[in-house]
Amino acid sequence: MPIRPVKELVAEAKSQITTLSVAEAQARQVSGEALLVDIRDPRELTREGRIPGAFHAPRGMLEFWIDPASPYHKTQLATDKTVILFCASSWRSALSAQTLQDMGVDNIAEIDGGFSAWREAGAPIETEE
Protein backbone atom coordinates (compact mmCIF):
# COMPACT_ATOMS: atom_id res chain seq x y z
CA MET A 1 0.00 0.00 0.00
CA PRO A 2 1.54 3.35 -1.02
CA ILE A 3 1.96 6.07 1.57
CA ARG A 4 -0.36 9.08 1.53
CA PRO A 5 1.38 11.96 -0.21
CA VAL A 6 2.37 14.81 2.09
CA LYS A 7 0.59 17.27 -0.23
CA GLU A 8 -2.64 15.42 0.51
CA LEU A 9 -2.03 15.60 4.28
CA VAL A 10 -1.25 19.32 4.06
CA ALA A 11 -4.37 20.01 1.97
CA GLU A 12 -6.50 18.11 4.48
CA ALA A 13 -4.94 20.01 7.39
CA LYS A 14 -5.49 23.37 5.67
CA SER A 15 -9.18 22.54 5.28
CA GLN A 16 -9.46 22.14 9.06
CA ILE A 17 -7.34 24.99 10.44
CA THR A 18 -7.29 28.79 10.41
CA THR A 19 -4.88 30.30 7.90
CA LEU A 20 -4.11 34.01 8.10
CA SER A 21 -2.55 36.31 5.53
CA VAL A 22 0.82 37.89 6.29
CA ALA A 23 -0.92 41.25 6.78
CA GLU A 24 -3.44 39.82 9.24
CA ALA A 25 -0.78 37.92 11.20
CA GLN A 26 1.43 41.01 11.34
CA ALA A 27 -1.48 43.21 12.48
CA ARG A 28 -2.39 40.75 15.24
CA GLN A 29 1.24 40.59 16.40
CA VAL A 30 1.58 44.38 16.44
CA SER A 31 -1.70 44.80 18.36
CA GLY A 32 -0.57 42.25 20.96
CA GLU A 33 -3.39 39.82 20.07
CA ALA A 34 -1.06 37.10 18.81
CA LEU A 35 2.16 35.25 19.49
CA LEU A 36 4.02 34.30 16.33
CA VAL A 37 5.75 30.94 16.69
CA ASP A 38 8.54 30.00 14.28
CA ILE A 39 8.73 26.21 13.96
CA ARG A 40 11.59 26.15 11.46
CA ASP A 41 14.86 24.36 12.07
CA PRO A 42 17.50 26.53 13.82
CA ARG A 43 19.67 26.36 10.68
CA GLU A 44 16.86 27.99 8.71
CA LEU A 45 16.73 30.89 11.18
CA THR A 46 20.48 31.41 10.84
CA ARG A 47 20.36 31.19 7.05
CA GLU A 48 17.12 33.09 6.28
CA GLY A 49 16.56 35.36 9.27
CA ARG A 50 13.82 35.70 11.86
CA ILE A 51 10.60 37.62 12.40
CA PRO A 52 11.22 40.12 15.21
CA GLY A 53 9.36 39.13 18.37
CA ALA A 54 8.56 35.60 17.17
CA PHE A 55 9.07 32.75 19.62
CA HIS A 56 11.13 29.87 18.26
CA ALA A 57 9.74 26.37 18.93
CA PRO A 58 11.42 23.74 16.75
CA ARG A 59 8.85 21.52 15.02
CA GLY A 60 10.09 18.42 16.78
CA MET A 61 9.44 19.92 20.23
CA LEU A 62 6.21 21.82 19.59
CA GLU A 63 3.75 19.36 21.13
CA PHE A 64 6.00 18.85 24.17
CA TRP A 65 6.54 22.56 24.69
CA ILE A 66 2.84 23.49 24.44
CA ASP A 67 1.51 20.73 26.75
CA PRO A 68 1.34 22.09 30.33
CA ALA A 69 1.67 18.52 31.67
CA SER A 70 4.91 17.90 29.78
CA PRO A 71 8.23 18.19 31.59
CA TYR A 72 9.38 20.23 28.56
CA HIS A 73 6.51 22.78 28.73
CA LYS A 74 7.43 26.37 27.86
CA THR A 75 5.35 28.95 29.72
CA GLN A 76 5.63 31.35 26.77
CA LEU A 77 3.24 29.07 24.88
CA ALA A 78 0.63 29.11 27.68
CA THR A 79 -1.17 32.16 26.37
CA ASP A 80 -4.67 33.40 25.65
CA LYS A 81 -3.31 35.14 22.56
CA THR A 82 -3.75 33.51 19.17
CA VAL A 83 -0.72 31.30 18.58
CA ILE A 84 0.22 31.79 14.92
CA LEU A 85 2.60 29.16 13.61
CA PHE A 86 4.84 29.56 10.60
CA CYS A 87 7.53 27.58 8.82
CA ALA A 88 9.23 28.26 5.48
CA SER A 89 6.22 27.80 3.20
CA SER A 90 3.33 26.70 5.46
CA TRP A 91 3.41 22.94 4.99
CA ARG A 92 4.89 22.10 8.41
CA SER A 93 2.82 24.82 10.06
CA ALA A 94 -0.40 23.43 8.59
CA LEU A 95 0.33 19.94 9.90
CA SER A 96 1.43 21.38 13.25
CA ALA A 97 -1.66 23.56 13.64
CA GLN A 98 -3.86 20.54 12.96
CA THR A 99 -1.96 18.47 15.53
CA LEU A 100 -2.27 21.21 18.18
CA GLN A 101 -6.00 21.48 17.44
CA ASP A 102 -6.23 17.71 17.92
CA MET A 103 -4.53 18.23 21.31
CA GLY A 104 -7.26 20.74 22.26
CA VAL A 105 -5.47 24.01 21.50
CA ASP A 106 -8.20 26.27 20.11
CA ASN A 107 -6.30 29.56 19.80
CA ILE A 108 -4.17 28.35 16.89
CA ALA A 109 -3.58 29.54 13.32
CA GLU A 110 -0.85 29.60 10.69
CA ILE A 111 0.52 32.12 8.19
CA ASP A 112 -0.37 31.50 4.56
CA GLY A 113 2.90 31.01 2.69
CA GLY A 114 4.98 31.03 5.88
CA PHE A 115 8.25 32.90 6.30
CA SER A 116 8.75 33.04 2.53
CA ALA A 117 5.49 34.99 2.10
CA TRP A 118 6.40 37.23 5.07
CA ARG A 119 9.75 38.09 3.45
CA GLU A 120 8.17 38.61 0.00
CA ALA A 121 5.61 40.99 1.55
CA GLY A 122 8.45 43.14 2.84
CA ALA A 123 7.50 42.57 6.47
CA PRO A 124 10.27 43.03 9.08
CA ILE A 125 13.03 40.44 9.32
CA GLU A 126 16.09 40.25 11.55
CA THR A 127 19.24 38.63 10.23
CA GLU A 128 22.44 37.58 11.94
CA GLU A 129 25.28 39.86 10.99
From TrEMBL:
InterPro entries: Rhodanese-like_dom, Rhodanese-like_dom_sf. It is an enzyme of class 2 (transferase). Keywords: Transferase. Residues 30-127 form the Rhodanese domain. One of its GO terms (molecular function) is thiosulfate-cyanide sulfurtransferase activity. Pfam families: Rhodanese (PF00581). Its EC number is 2.8.1.1. This is Thiosulfate sulfurtransferase GlpE.
